[in-house]
Write a structure and sequence with these properties.
Blueprint: H1 3-10, E1 16-23, E2 35-42, H2 45-57, E3 62-65, E4 71-73, E5 78-85, E6 92-95, E7 100-104, H3 109-118, E8 121-122, H4 134-140, E9 153-160, E10 164-169, E11 175-176, E12 179-180, E13 187-194, E14 196-197, H5 200-217, H6 237-243, E15 250-251, E16 254-256, E17 264-266, H7 272-290, E18 299-301
Parallel strand pairs: 2-5, 3-5, 4-18
Antiparallel strand pairs: 1-2, 6-7, 7-13, 8-14, 9-10, 9-13, 11-12, 15-16, 16-17
The structure holds flavin-adenine dinucleotide (FAD).
Residues 29, 63-71, 85, 105, 130-133, 135-137, 139-140, 142-143, 187-188, 218, 220, 224-226, 299 line the site of flavin-adenine dinucleotide (FAD).
């Protein structure tokens, strides 16, 4: 595999910028992570396809990242290419007549939420305050515990490497709690949400209430990846970890938040090893006490994978 060959072939040849050895701490909300061998800022479909083809030819692994708000990146970095969708991929279009919002995967989720509010379209309120991109939200099926974005997806366009574009109807996809049936080999390019006309003031009031609850319950003053573990059915991970006496436990620069024990925050200089050590502690304590095997919600980047 040769990242260097891929870089030399791609640089200047496609509508994209390529950066070598860029620290992932700049690309994740955790502010953690060593260098990615290559970061590709891709602005259109042709550039994406060509980039993926060249990476495949050179045997370089790759991953699409949104804003990195649900990612723990390895201190040792990632030996592949991180692809970021920008330019054309950040478009947002609203159709008030159809009550739809169509957005590219690279658009900020907050922009999609705000455009829906401005147009008086309801349905995406559970995503207010969720950081990241629209593509990241679709990939994670973001939202609250019981209301998630997948329920609003009318259709979705992906890129299947080696094949081209493929369009799904929203109903063809299985949407679960922070999970979808979209294969991880596919790149989400764009989706259309089917929303409902509603009173703007009512939508705004609902969003305000959700934002207030978020500010009260989440430690937003330190970098984090949001919830670290998925909630088991009918249980709250935060409460489980807290009942094991681990709220406030720290390792290096990382700490299990006292405000919400399912958040591990970076209090300054935390490493991925610090976060992993606390995750292991919380996981083992909950398993020993409750027999529950907590599953991570956070995605791992690097770590040999
Ligand atoms: C303070 C805080 C609060 C949060 N609150 C919530 C919450 O209330 N609800 C919630 O659901 N989440 C929450 N999160 C988690 C996170 O914001 C969401 O999961 C978000 O949707 C991730 O978007 P992203 O663009 O940052 O994706 P990333 O973190 O960059 O990526 C997440 C995953 O999606 C994949 N991915 C990203 N884009 C694409 C694409 N175009 N095609 C294919 N795969 C892709 C990545 O490879 C990765 O596996 C919170 C995070 C933080 C830091």
């Amino acid at each position: 595999m040769s990242v260097f060959n891929a870089y030399m072939t791609l640089s200047g040849a496609v509508d994209a910028d390529f950066v070598r050895d860029e620290p992932l701490s700049r690309r994740t909300s955790y502010r953690i992570g060593g260098p990615a061998a290559l970061v590709a800022h891709v602005r259109d479909y042709a550039a994406l396809v060509r980039t993926v083809e060249v990476l495949a030819d050179e045997g370089v692994r790759w991953v699409v990242l949104g804003k990195g708000t649900n990612v723990l990146a390895d201190d040792a970095g990632y030996d592949g290419c991180v692809i970021l969708l920008e330019g054309e991929f950040a478009r947002v279009n609203v159709s008030v007549e159809d009550a739809t919002v169509t957005a590219g995967a690279g658009a900020a989720l907050s922009r999609v939420v705000n455009e829906a509010l401005r147009a008086g379209l309801s349905g995406i309120e559970p995503c207010v305050g969720v950081p990241g991109t629209f593509g990241g939200a679709i990939s994670m099926n973001a939202g609250s515990r019981r209301e998630w974005i997948g329920r609003r997806v009318r259709d979705l366009v992906v890129y299947r490497p080696g094949e081209g574009m493929h369009r799904y109807e929203g109903g063809e996809i299985e949407w679960g709690y922070r999970a979808t049936s979209i294969p991880t080999s596919e790149v989400i390019l764009e989706a259309t949400l089917s929303l409902m006309p509603a009173d703007k003031d009512a939508i705004a009031a609902d969003m305000d209430a959700r934002l207030r609850r978020r500010r009260q319950s989440q430690p937003l003053s330190h970098p984090s990846c949001g919830s670290v573990f998925r909630n088991p059915p009918d249980r709250s991970v935060g409460a489980l970890i807290e009942s094991c006496g681990l709220a406030g436990a720290s390792q290096g620069g990382a700490q299990i938040s006292e405000a919400h024990a399912n958040f591990i925050v970076n209090r300054g200089g935390a490493t991925s090893s610090d976060v992993l050590a606390l995750m292991t502690r919380a996981h083992d304590a909950v398993r020993a006490r409750y027999g529950i095997d907590l599953a991570p919600e956070v995605k791992f980047l690097g770590f040999g994978g």
